[in-house]
Amino acid sequence: MSAPCNVVVLISGSGSNLQALIDSLGEDNPTCIRAVISNRAEAFGLQRAGAAGIPTHVVQHKDFSDREAFDAALKTIIDEYSPHLVLLAGFMRILTPGFVRHYQGRLLNIHPSLLPKHKGLDTHRRALDAGDSEHGCSVHFVTEELDGGPVALQAVFTIGNENSIDALTSRVHAAEHVIYPLAVRWFAEGRLRLASEGAMLDGVLLPVTGHLIRI
Hints:
By secondary structure, this protein is α/β, with parallel strands linked by helices. It has two domains: 1-103, 3-Layer(aba) Sandwich (Rossmann fold), CATH 3.40.50.170; 111-214, 3-Layer(aba) Sandwich (Rossmann fold). Helices cover 31% and strands 27% of the residues. The chain contains six helices and eleven strands. The strands form two sheets. An eight-stranded mixed beta sheet has the order 3-2-1-4-5-6-7-11, sandwiched between helices. A three-stranded antiparallel beta sheet has the order 8-9-10. Helix 2 links the parallel strand 2 (31-38) and strand 3 (56-58). Helix 1 runs parallel beside helix 6. The longest helix is centred in the C-terminal third of the chain and has 24 residues, at 165-188. The mean pLDDT is 96.
């Protein structure tokens, strides 16, 4: 088995993607979640981490005068764990360019749309309002452009006539719980990397929409 890939996960809420990552760990998975950090002390994901024996930290953004100060404090804690990879798993903060550059190539996010479509918030409503025939989620490398970094992996499904916002939300959540652990494992195994040209899987440059899984 490969040497462990140290991972730090950043959360703000329930931590369902964190739980999917925890559940994916096993003897043949080189991923090691070293710590979970939240900007909200009440985030249920902290309880999930604690139940799995993973160290937790709270860095509340309201305690800092600006984004730069908050990100600096966050970075100090993250770097104590010497992470190979930092994961945004429902972390509801816009990160400063300096923070993003510090973790360039080792910072991943999961976004609830088929990027580059529907960057930002309220993606399920926007997909329905746009009359999209398909929807899904994307794992992408984080860059200074919001939701604009190279896509590594997408899960896509057909939107049915009966689909509501709630239905799309549930389907996307289920898809996220499949593809985020998979992308993390690929990174941990040395298969997934960010190059100057974009995201690469097994040494091959991925298309703009990344590797596609239809569910």
